[in-house]
Amino acid sequence: MFRNFKMISRVVFGRGCFDQLDDILAEKRKDTGSFMVFLVDDVFSASSLRDRVPVKSRDLLILVNVDEEPKTAYVDDLTHNVRDFSNRLPDGVIGIGGGSTMDLAKAISLMLTNPGSSADYQGWDLIKNPAVYHVGIPTLSGTGAEVSRTTVLSGPEKKLGINSDHTVFDQIVLDPELISGAPANQRFYTGMDCYIHCVESLNGKYLNAFSKSYGEKAIELCREVFLDGGPNSDDKLMMASYFGGMSIAYSQVGVCHALSYGLSFVLGVHHGIGNCIAFDYLDEYYPEGVREFRRMMKKQGIELPRNLVADTDNDKLEKMIDVALVLEPLWENALGSDWKRIMTRDRIKELYQRM
User: Which is the most buried residue in 66, 229, 243, 294, by most CB within 10 A?
Assistant: First the structure.
């Protein structure tokens, strides 16, 4: 049986298209008593972007902090804030920021219509009720969060996404002007999330023509941005993120993402830089990709932190291994159905201890 995946209903792309957001949302506002919830990365708290957000008098604007990657407890707190704000559901939830902010928007839109804690839904296809209408507006590009069917959260026991057809955004607004001011290091780490997505997908067991077509185009665009330079790099990076996210829809990531989840859950390493740290030690699994990745790092003047795991005690190391091993579809995509024999706990520990 082939998976019948849900895709994004509407997409607007182009420089300055953010200014159409008010018109887009106007179609979804039900009546004079309805409201929208805007989740905006607090890095924009004193910026001109915040002033451009089309907040109406009854709307709720929440500045969210993503210094740490989204936790289920934070999602639950924000969901309670929205519920306390009104006795009715919002007409929409709009996330404006990088991948973490968009993941918060996806998670809150789901939890407003599903009971319990967001930790209850970490896994595949556990969500039963459709989400509130939700919109993603990236200010960083690379994660593919704007098109993916997951919202990645760290819970009490694991880092794992809420993977569901209901997670997918109903609308995305892709304005390359919004990513033009990102710090160079952050831009690189987030862009490499896209590159690594595609290396893992294109070398995986789940590969098919759907994933291959999107993944190859995303990698081509990453090369143009991070090796060739030239004009329109923001436009290209934004489309690379889109294509990379689409590539994963009918495929999976692999060894690097599984390991980076452990780094993130135990050591608090952000996803993009965590992927880069892990990928740099995976020559055995992705030799050509790692070589090209290092060329990109050199071209962009990026130096990765080293020895992050050197002083990590054994209990924490074991927890990192536990978190990585939960992600069985990733290991199977990378190594095949016999992956448990190949990727033992000792082998994972050895890889972590290099980082």
Answer: 243
Give the residue extent of every domain in the chain. 10-179, 184-354
Q: Other C-beta atoms within 10 Å of 44: how many?
A: 19
Q: What is the pLDDT of residues 120-162, one digit of tens each?
A: 999 999 999 999 999 999 999 999 999 999 999 999 999 999 9
Q: Please, how many CA atoms are within 13 Å of residue 223, restricted to the half-sphere of its CB?
A: 11
CATH number for the region 184-354 comes to 1.20.1090.10
Residue 3 token pair = 């998976």
pLDDT digits (tens, 9 = 90+) for 219-258: 999 999 999 987 899 999 999 999 999 998 888 999 999 9
How high is the pLDDT of residue 289?
Answer: 98
First to last CA, the chain: 40
Answer whether residue 302 shows pLDDT above 80.
yes
Whether 240 contacts 214, CB under 8 Å: no
pLDDT at 231: 83
DSSP assignments along 331-344, one per residue: HHHHH-TTHHHHS-
Angstrom CA distances, 136 to 62, 169, 185, stand at 15, 6, 23
Residue 250's SS3 state is: coil
The amino acid at residue 282 is L
The pTM assigned to this predicted structure is 0.95
Domain 10-179 has CATH 3.30.70.260: no
Q: Are 169 and 134 in contact (CB under 8 A)?
A: yes
Closest CA to 138 of 201, 202, 66: 66
The answer to whether 226 and 299 have CB atoms below 8 angstroms apart is: yes
CA distance to 14, 215, 228, per residue, from 222 (Å): 19, 11, 9
For the cut 80, the answer to whether the pLDDT of residue 1 exceeds it is no
CA distances from 63 to 69, 99, 123, 296 (A): 15, 15, 27, 34
φ, ψ of residue 146 in degrees (nearest 5):
-70, -20
Contacts of 180 (CB under 8 A, 6+ apart): 234
Rounded to the nearest angstrom, the gap between the alpha carbon of residue 248 and the centroid of all alpha carbons in its chain is 12
Residue 64 phi/psi, 5° resolution? -100, 145
How open is the CA angle 215-221-224, to the nearest 5 degrees?
A: 145
